[in-house]
Amino acid sequence: MKIRLLHKQVDTEQCPLLYETSFEQEQELDNWRICSGEWWIENGWLHGRNPLNAPGVLLSKQDFPGNVLVEFEARTVLPSTHDINLMWNTSWDEEKNMRGAAYVAGLQGWWEGKIGLEKSPDYVLNAATPLFDFEPGRSYRIQAGSIDGHCFVCVDGKLLLELTDYDPIDSRLHTKVGFEAYASFIQIRHVRIRSIEWQPLVRAYSAEF
What is the C-alpha to C-alpha distance for residues 26 and 160, in angstroms, rounded to an integer? Predict the structure, then answer.
């Protein structure tokens, strides 16, 4: 798949694969740290359940420094209807026992059914739209990541949102990838984490009149 961003193009098949898991075996959860919420593997899916109005976080034990792309399949478990969330360029604040720096992307979140992006821990950088027609219980293929703070979210092969961070997270210091259930019950499988390679795009309009 080719993702065409502002001034950049990413060919996902050309991005080196750093990590892959199907979440079919229980021991695959050993590569992840349960920070909050309930997380377990059952029937070929990673389950994340958290009834609280707070992040239920699962973080990779492995480090993924630099520009990364996270690809996975996910769905809500009815009657749960919202918040399939992921994060990258992430760290965990051990002193505060909460997420530190991170880019966070989500489907059907922000209390009003939006697809969006936000930057932890200050949350002063946000972008969201209510225009994605989300269906609870349906499986979606999600791809999200960033190139030096140029963040993007794709669902089922379509680019739905991008933003550029003028003060990018230090991706060599904050190196975890993770998932989040925020007052939601979600399932995840077929996870791939890639290092992003991209090419510049020079664009211009053709004359129309």
Answer: 33
